[in-house]
Amino acid sequence: MAVATGAIVANLYYSQPLLHQVSVSFGVGTAATSLVVTCTQIGYALGLLLVVPLGDLRPRRSLTAFVFVLCAGFLVLAAAAPTLWLFEVASVAIGCTSVAGQIMLPFAADLAEPGRQGRVVARIMTGLLLGILLARTAAGLVAQLAGWRTIYWVSCGLMIAFALILRRTLPEESERPRIPYRRLVATSIRFLATEPVLRRRAWAGATEFAAFSVLWTSLAFLLSGAPYHYSRAVIGLFGLAGVAGVTMANVAGRLADNEKARLTTTVSAIVLTGSFAILALGRTELVALIVGILVLDIGTQGIQITNQAVIYRIRPEARSRVNSAYMVCYFAGGALGSLSAGLVLAAAGWDGICWLGGGFGALLLAGAVLEHVRPLALPGVEPLAAAS
Fold it and tell me: Which CATH architecture group holds 2-385?
């Protein structure tokens, strides 16, 4: 499940190190090309809203396999797109069908033993995070060897393979409750109004992912220009700079199981916000750029793992819908970060990008401080009530 989750979420990030080549291929500017990332994230948010809640209605084994097959079809459309607008349409559809990992995450939480949900979620999230980080490396290397479109053909083959594997190996489930689809989606959104813990965690997720997206949407343009002038393959290798930060996933999972969610959130918010001061030096200093990427990823992963370990305790009978509501906010934040990064990069360069990312980090930190000033108790979880 972890490997499959990483493989399908990677589809959201293949375009990021290729934006310069996509811009040249279609003959368009930086701002227009940056919309490719935004389109993918908007599509993912739609999938989280409209597809993920089905995990509380349909058997998740067959649902997951079906979504993988759909994603494969849209990857073919992206690989063959002759114009930017069609590539962006395909990107929305790819994003919408790359939510299978978010169907499997609550499934894994259901299968976990009591008291180990944080660690189980962390294991799946480690696969997801590696998929996010290695996607850029894979895309850069494949583009260097065979052109930027090839990665979409390769991913199509992977989606078909994982659809077959998951259909065969995921466990069967008992009959799911019969809930009308409209009510299913409406309930997911309603949780944001009725669950204050979910609202706070959704704020943390949205601001964290906005900051993360600011960096990765703009990084390829920095690395392809002066003073670096790196090739597609080298730009893709920068995804490896954050792999060491994946170790934070398992640390955060254990801390969440040990009722340290509030502390982990605050420390991670400080780390993420501070990373943009280091990244500002990366305009001309390679070491600072790599260290800044690593620090940003550590903060990002600490927030995300803690958030998901916490939200799955809110409504155990509706984990797919809770996850849907949270992740819609999460990727809406990411889409805002990507869109604003394209505009700010064109207007204010790398310094503007670092101020923008630091601004999103400050909003994240404000929410973390609120956790200390006005702590909330988790419903139905006595030990966590005082800590989170």
Answer: Up-down Bundle (1.20)
Model pTM score: 0.76
How far is residue 362's CA from residue 365's CA, in Å, rounded to a whole number? 5
What are the boundaries of each domain within the chain? 2-385
Question: 3-class SS at 283?
Answer: coil
What is the secondary structure of 303-327 as a DSSP string?
HHHHHHHHHTTT-GGGHHHHHHHHH
Give the whole-angstrom CA distance, residue 275 versus residue 295: 6
Within 8 A by CB and 6+ apart from 9, the residues are 98, 101, 128, 131, 132, 135
Detail the DSSP E strand segments found in the chain: none
**How distant is the alpha carbon of residue 341 from its chain centre?**
17
Q: What is the pLDDT of residues 77-100, one digit of tens each?
A: 999 999 899 999 999 999 999 999
For residue 303, CA distances in Å to 22, 128, 268 come to 32, 14, 6
Rounded to whole angstroms, the Cα distance separating 166 from 90 reads 24
Instruction: Say which residue the tokens 């294991």 belong to.
Output: 123
